[in-house]
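Please predict the structure of the following assembly.
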Amino acid sequence: EAQVTQNPRYLITVTGKKLTVTCSQNMNHEYMSWYRQDPGLGLRQIYYSMNVEVTDKGDVPEGYKVSRKEKRNFPLILESPSPNQTSLYFCASSLGQGYRNEQFFGPGTRLTVL
Amino acid sequence: QKEVEQDPGPLSVPEGAIVSLNCTYSNSAFQYFMWYRQYSRKGPELLMYTYSSGNKEDGRFTAQVDKSSKYISLFIRDSQPSDSATYLCAMNSGGSNYKLTFGKGTLLTVNP
């Protein structure tokens, strides 16, 4: 089944404790992206990757890191989480071939930083 | 002015009603327009995809794009309780630009 998976689905942590949220897709997509979704603010892009070893900042990159060492994986790293990073996070992927940029979303990771 | 504006609702309708959801946008470079549906505790899933102006119909759903007015709509006919979800519009300028710009979403509840 074609899908985007994220782990963990739920995470409660404390300020300053480094964490990684994993994202994996099995559709051989080139483009992958991380979003956060907050009430009243909608979906905002954190980082994106056009292909292996190619990443760039989205609209709200502060406090986050990403890496793209393999095509299928795109982990999101919070080196020192803070309470304002409490949010619902989505990973998405697409073929990235230009004319049709349909993005497939993962199930989401709900993060709480105390 | 925000790039994409979408009335957040909430919108509550009786079963069988016709629902109209709308977004306006300011970036004239947008060419590809999408509607995503997001059920509670789930990730968004693509519902409709339209290129440039015009209408597209898929079952009970119709997407309309009016580029001259920078206005897009999603119509749901014979709405069902299973249509209760948040609907997000999204758009993109295409080419090598893969970024989607989303509206904030409209929460729709269809009451049996």
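The CA atoms of residues 38 and 44 of chain B lie 4 Å apart. Chain B has a mean pLDDT of 92.
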